[in-house]
Design goal:
With about 120 residues, the protein is of the alpha/beta class. The protein contains 5 helices and 4 strands, in the order ααβαβαβαβ. It has helices spanning about 1-10, 20-25, 40-55, 75-80, 100-110, and strands at about 30-35, 60-65, 85, 115-120. A 4-stranded parallel sheet has the order 3-2-1-4, sandwiched between helices. The termini are far apart.
C-alpha cells in the first residue's frame, strides 16, 4: 500500500536528526537528571559515565544523585564522577524522614532548578 509507505516516510525519523549537537542547539529549557539511589556503588559510576556525554554536549545541565544514606560508598563514587549529591533525609527535613524512593524523587524537586527533570534508576 503506497499510502502506508508515504505515511511512514513523512512520519519516520533518522537517528542523525537526534545528534547531540543538533539537539543542544534547539534546547530552550534547563534539564536536570536525578538518580535516587541506595547502596549502588557498583552501578552508579558506569551510569554517570554514560550520562557524561549528554552533559558535555549541553543536553543536561545537572546530574543530581539523591542518596539514601548508603554505606557502600555510593555518594563518594557519584561525587568522583562530578555529580552533585544530596542525602534524601536532608531534603525538606521539615517533612520528617524520607519514606522511600517516591518520596526521595519528590524531595529531589526541591533541590534542583531544572525546567525539565528526568529520573533514572541507579541500580541497573
Amino acid at each position: 500500500d503506497l499510502r502506508l509507505d508515504e505515511w511512514s516516510r513523512r512520519r519516520g525519523y533518522s537517528a542523525a536528526q537526534f545528534a547531540p549537537d543538533a539537539l543542544a542547539r534547539g534546547k530552550s529549557a534547563t534539564v536536570s537528571v536525578v538518580l535516587p539511589c541506595r547502596e549502588v556503588a557498583g552501578t552508579i559510576g558506569p551510569i554517570l559515565d554514560a550520562l557524561a556525554p549528554l552533559e558535555e554536549a549541553g543536553l543536561s545541565d545537572e546530574l543530581l544523585v539523591v542518596d539514601a544514606g548508603s554505606r557502600d560508598g555510593t555518594a563518594a563514587v557519584a561525587r568522583d564522577r562530578g555529580a552533585r549529591v544530596a542525602q534524601e533525609d536532608e531534603l525538606l527535613p521539615e517533612m520528617g524522614r524520607c519514606r522511600g524512593k517516591g518520596d526521595a524523587m519528590w524531595r529531589a524537586l526541591s533541590a534542583t532548578p531544572g525546567d525539565v527533570v528526568g529520573f533514572l534508576a541507579a541500580d541497573t
